[in-house]
Amino acid sequence: MIKVSEKLKTEHPRREVVSKHETVYREETVNKKVPVFSLMVNTISVSASLARIMEWGINNKPAYVCFANVHMLAEAHRDETFRSQVNSANLVLPDGKPIAMSIKGFHGQKTERKAGMDFLPLVLSKADDKGARIFLYGSSLEIQEAMIKRIQLEYPYVQIAGNIVPPFEELSQSELMDHISQIKKSGAHIVLVSLGCPKQEKWMAENSHRIPAVLLGLGGAFPVFAEMRSRAPQWMQRYSLEWLYRLVQEPRRMFKRYLYTNTLFLYLLAKKIIHR
Q1: Four-point Cα dihedral 96, 98, 104, 106, nearest 10
Q2: Cα dist. 167→52, 117, 134, 138, 222 in Å?
Q3: pTM for this one?
Q4: What are the residues whose beta carbons fall under 8 Å from the beta carbon of 172, sequence distance 6 or more?
């Protein structure tokens, strides 16, 4: 675990954590979900989802949030247990543009894409306003160190409660419980999780009830925020081509994944259109 500076351990007097009894503004009163093939995805707005996440975190409510993309949809399609774990999340937000476009096409409801890479800075900005405590779980030590430096520079009132880099292999039960104990003792309001899909969603679903904080499954947002991996240009994002940019960056690792997930999505899309 990286040693957090004493400066960050002390709340700044101008940024006090919201009282647990304070009512947070709600933009929407109904947490609506709509089906996108095997997933049930929330149509809540960005501002309302941020408000709820901060409310849950400040009140130490166990909760977890998934960011749904085509890869997650494919995993949910072939794994019923994983599908249930994702659909049981407190929020399932449309990370990939194909998911957001499917909601509009099949349900006639325009919804904002909520990419984890865009959502992470927004969460940190809200946490900065509240002086909230953040815990980093997953990715690599190098990436976490770079993230903490950037958070200290750009979000000075965010408190880094702690960080853990779990080993790649499966944790023993004692190791798992030790990690959970560290997170609980840290007093974290929000836990940023980067273990990759589907591992991070499974970890959150299985352990959320043990942790009095909001868990956000942010996956690839960590290296981008740490400025160790570049993101696709805006024009590629607009045309749902971020996967192609990522494929060029990591062809060996991503080729088989995208071949399977993109083909499956197109098949399900065509089947749905023909059925309609």
Answers
A1: -130
A2: 31, 24, 21, 9, 17
A3: 0.85
A4: none
Best-predicted range by mean pLDDT among 23-32, 65-74, 92-101, 244-253? Answer: 65-74
The domain total for the chain is 2
Q: Which of 189, 205, 225 is the last residue of a domain?
A: 225
Q: Which domain holds residue 28?
A: 6-225
Q: Is the pLDDT of residue 254 over 50?
A: yes
Whole-number pLDDT of residue 223: 94
Residue 197 domain-assigned (yes or no): yes
Report d(CA 220, CA 116) in Å as an integer: 8
The closest of 63, 55, 62 to 23, measured between CA atoms, is 55
Preceding peptide of 198 cis, ω within 30°: yes
b/e burial code for range 232-252 (CB count within 10 A of at least 16 → b): beeeebeebebbeebbeeeee
3-state class of 203 per DSSP? helix
Is 92 a residue whose pLDDT tops 90?
Answer: yes
User: Does residue 256 share a domain with residue 136?
Assistant: no
Please check whether residues 207 and 76 belong to one and the same domain.
Answer: yes
Per-residue pLDDT reduced to its tens digit, 136-151? 999 999 999 999 999 9
Do residues 175 and 243 share a domain? Answer: no
What are the tokens at 22? 């304070």
